[in-house]
User: Fold this.
Amino acid sequence: MQVHLQLGTPGGVEHRHWDAGSFQVWRKGRFLTRETAGYSDQIAGFMNVGSVDTEHPLAHNTLLFEAWNSGRWVGRGPHVIPPGDDRGEQPRALPEVRRLQHEAQFGYIAVDYSNAYRNMPESRVDWPYADKAWREFLFIRPLQALLILDRTRGSADSQLPWYNGGGWLLDGPHVTADQVRRTFVMHFETAPTTNANRVAATLGTQTSELITLLPTLPSFRIFNEDRTGDEEAGQHRVELDQIGATDAYFLNIITGYDSGEAALVANLVDNGASWTITLSHPLRGNASIVLNKGMSSVGGSISIDGSEAVPLRESVQAISVTSERPVWEATYLFRDGFETAAP
Assistant:
């Protein structure tokens, strides 16, 4: 199983897509999930209303606030604006990778999109709905499972006078922070079926499955994205909303199976200030993950097959590239210089 993550926003090109935070997963010759690829093709709009171009966030596996993600660049962009320089109407920042960890049995990354989802205050193209937006990925290799945690806080800025006057060029609702609609988006190449908190699709000899642990009672909106004249572009899209709380979390697991293989068992325990997620499979083993709550990413750990819990790294693990291969900074090394998971 291979995982591809689009963490940032491509810069200096005009043919960019709005795909910050998107993910794609490949297993045994099939995409368990992928973006809807296109070149000026039309697919279904949000909630299957109207149509949008395939550059839109809805064509990708993204986290949305009121059906949009990262800030719009005016003129050239995205690009780095040095600290202290005038940002004009541009986004407040680029996405920030805050935590990155490579281990033999898992990979972990946490990205802060909070400022990247907003343009400068009182700018014509600010989308005023995100106060906090984090996306975290934990890829557990033995279990062939990708865990995704989204931390979201809505913003009431759309009620400010600027967004109710003639200077704001966009069209969005004027809502309190708790009424900001946040959406987890994922795609399947074939029509999926639902069973409680699971969505699964058959892809030849493979089965792709989405398991939702938060919200605890998910209500999936699933439809074919195809639009007349662009039937080859669209896939089957899942939209999962949260609305009604200022702070909200999505916790999802994506995995895949061979035909007839047993399903992954996934359970969530709420500890008050944290969650414990347990995953188990009769052939792949088991894992116990602790993730802390809050609108920023700190702490956490993972134990695989009963081993001692490994803390999730608080910083970005360094990587260098030699003439032979990439080399990760490692806490533990064999005598020959290669890394190992633990002593």
Notes: The first strand starts at residue 2 and ends at 6. The domain at 2-259 is CATH 2.70.98.70 (Beta-galactosidase; Chain A, domain 5). Residues 17 and 55 are 4 Å apart (CA to CA).
